[in-house]
UniProtKB/TrEMBL annotation:
PANTHER family (alphabetical): BIFUNCTIONAL NON-HOMOLOGOUS END JOINING PROTEIN LIGD
Protein name, UniProt field: DNA ligase D polymerase domain-containing protein
The organism's place on the tree of life at top rank: Bacteria
Domain DNA ligase D polymerase: 32-291
């Protein structure tokens, strides 16, 4: 049975038109746009709390992960009027714009709208906006752990444990998740004790000094072979990190997946921490949101 090109639906009282539902977006996995929309709809109860109030940047793959993609920050004029938008300054914009109208995913209709645009990856900053659309101070600290080959996520887990201990010694509780790609991230609620990038940089450099064979804190690829790069720069207010429960655009529909510390401690093979959309839906049904606020 052929799926209609366009299907009108109502989502929480909003009228949407879904299109090309049978288009395969992950060819190696046979994962269609309909399955992407289904995943985001079903994971929404645990995903939306991590998106609400945060300006959205999406990575869109209209013809699937094997074809061209583009980043989209600005919500174009044809975006439905019920999608929340906030106008924010973007100093240093590559397109010479003083402000960008960002979408904010506060509800299920907006999430489904972007899923229908093949916005596979959802990226957000470490800060939110208030009810009037003004930027608030950062509320989250993040460390992005990126393995330099031949290192893998296994080595990232070892560094994550070091970071957890260092953060605990300073009164911060770390929450781990996979990146959904090759590495992982650690988050902690941020109390504004200082500028977060400066704090994260200092902690990364301390661990590099203490564990020079395992850790590197500089971005140069030639310095990263076999080590884990602790990317502290994700705390720059202009930068974003893939959201918890977001899909990633690899060969498989993998997900940036919240973890237990027991899973981090017990990781022995890279595949131990690879989770696809169906895996994550099963995890959420069983465990709820492992990335709930500490």
């Amino acid at each position: 049975m052929k799926v209609p090109m366009k299907v009108p639906v109502k989502v929480d009282g909003r009228d949407l038109t879904l299109s090309n539902l049978d288009k395969v977006l992950y060819p190696d996995f046979g994962f269609t746009k309909a399955e992407v929309i289904d995943y985001y709809s079903r994971v929404a109860p645990v995903l939306l709390p991590h998106l609400r109030g945060r300006p959205l940047t999406v990575k869109r793959y209209p013809n699937g992960v094997a074809a061209q993609f583009f980043f989209e920050k600005n919500a174009p004029d044809h975006t439905p009027g019920w999608v929340r938008r906030v106008s924010l300054p973007v100093p240093g914009s590559t397109k010479n714009r003083e402000t960008i109208d960002f979408a904010v995913v506060d509800d299920l209709p907006t999430l489904v709208y972007y899923a229908n645009l093949a916005a596979l990856e959802l990226h957000v900053p470490q800060w939110r906006v208030d009810d009037d659309g003004r930027a608030l101070p950062p509320d989250t600290l993040v460390f992005d752990l990126d393995p330099g080959p031949p290192a893998t996520i296994v080595e990232c887990t070892r560094v994550a444990l070091m970071l957890r201990e260092a953060l605990e010694s300073e009164g911060l509780v770390a929450r781990p998740k996979t990146s959904g790609s090759k590495g992982m991230q650690l988050y902690a609620d941020w109390d504004g004790r200082e500028e977060p990038s400066a704090y994260a940089r200092r902690l990364a450099r301390r661990l590099e000094k203490e564990h020079p064979r395992q850790v590197v804190s500089v971005m140069a690829k030639k310095a990263r072979a076999g080590k884990v790069f602790i990317d502290w720069s994700q705390n720059n207010p202009a930068k974003t990190t893939v959201a918890p429960y977001s899909l990633r655009a690899g060969q498989r529909p993998t997900v940036s997946t919240p973890l237990t510390w027991a899973e981090v401690e017990g990781c022995e093979h890279a595949e131990d921490l690879v989770f696809t959309a169906p895996d994550v839906l099963a995890r959420v049904e069983k465990r709820g949101d492992l990335f709930g606020r500490a």
